[in-house]
Specification:
Number of helices: 4
Protein name: V8-like Glu-specific endopeptidase
Structural class: mainly beta
Strand content: 25-35%
Organism: Nonomuraea endophytica
Shape: globular
CATH class of the largest domain: Mainly Beta
Number of strands: 18
Strand order of the largest sheet: 11-14-15-18-17-16
Keywords: Signal
Distance between the termini: 46 Å
Order of helices and strands: HEEEEEEEEHEHEEEEEEEEEH
CATH topology of the largest domain: Thrombin, subunit H
Helix content: 10-25%
GO biological process, one term: proteolysis
Largest sheet: 6 strands, antiparallel, barrel
Number of domains: 2
InterPro entries: Glutamyl_endopeptidase (IPR050966), Peptidase_S1_PA (IPR009003), Peptidase_S1_PA_chymotrypsin (IPR043504), TRYPSIN_HIS (IPR018114)
CATH superfamily of the largest domain: Trypsin-like serine proteases
Length: 262
């Protein structure tokens, strides 16, 4: 049985990946490394990083994020745990689409509001929380320009019931650590299967910094990178929080309505 453990304790940016985290036969990504990941080749305007500050620890925390298509044109999708550090809400959260090489070519977009599902807020840290490890962040516009008017049209959420079993997802993120720069977009192809409200792939083993990035299914986003097995696991896996749920649809509708009102 899978050991679904929370990413806050597993995705450690300083951890050294083992030599055989994902069996070579399971790596689907062309040029994929021992975790199944390879450089994406170029930055994407609809994907970037969220950075926030923990004033107690005095540290900055970085996660992946993606521009989500909405009528307000101002929403970012990420993981719920990316809004916190050691249980504390991060301050000064900003989103940088198209982030590459430590630069933000499309600007820095300050967050003005955020939403997480009640299933995340109301439960203690446990595997039962993982299906709700989703968050939406509303960012302020720049004059008359919205996030989507600068970064391009956002990713659309996958429609319920349209995913076929066995089709690979493309996981995007900015892994950090001794073998990863943390400033460059990486991707991993993984076949995902449903398991107790989440999606699990054994083809990708997300390292620190990979949280919050989107999992693409065709031209849509099917989930968010949430957690992984310990890096010492010789058959590592990654857990994705899926978007094709009614709680997420309700949260998206509410967030979009609030951001449209300004």
């Amino acid at each position: 049985m899978l050991r679904l453990l929370l990413s806050m304790t597993l995705l450690n940016p300083t951890a050294e990946p083992p030599l055989d985290a994902v069996p070579a036969a399971h790596v689907l990504t062309p040029g994929g490394d021992r975790l199944g990941y390879a450089p994406a080749g170029r930055a994407r305007s609809d994907t970037g990083v969220l950075i926030g500050h923990d004033p107690v620890a005095g540290t900055a925390v970085m996660c992946g994020g993606a521009v989500l298509r909405s009528r307000s044109r101002s929403l970012v999708l990420t993981a719920a745990h990316c809004l916190y550090h050691r249980g504390r809400r991060l301050r000064g959260l900003v989103f940088m689409p198209g982030y590459h090489g430590g630069r933000a070519p499309l600007g820095i977009w300050p967050a003005v509001q955020s939403w997480v599902p009640s299933g995340w807020r109301d439960q203690p840290d446990s595997p039962a929380r993982l299906p709700y490890d989703l968050a939406l962040v509303g960012v302020a516009g720049k004059g008359r320009s919205s996030l989507e008017s600068v970064a391009g049209r956002g990713l659309r959420p996958v429609a319920r019931g349209t995913m076929s079993r066995g089709r690979a997802l493309d996981l995007l993120g900015y892994p950090a650590g001794r073998r990863y720069p943390g400033t460059r977009l990486y991707h991993c192809l993984g076949q995902a299967a449903p398991y107790r409200g989440v999606l699990v792939t054994h083809n990708c083993h997300a390292s620190g910094g990979g949280s919050g990035g989107p999992a693409l299914y065709g031209g849509a986003v099917a989930g968010v990178v949430s957690s992984s097995s310990p890096l010492s696991d010789p058959a590592g896996f990654t857990v994705l929080a899926p978007l094709d749920s009614r709680p997420f649809a309700r949260m998206l509708s509410r967030a979009d309505r609030v951001m449209r009102r300004g």
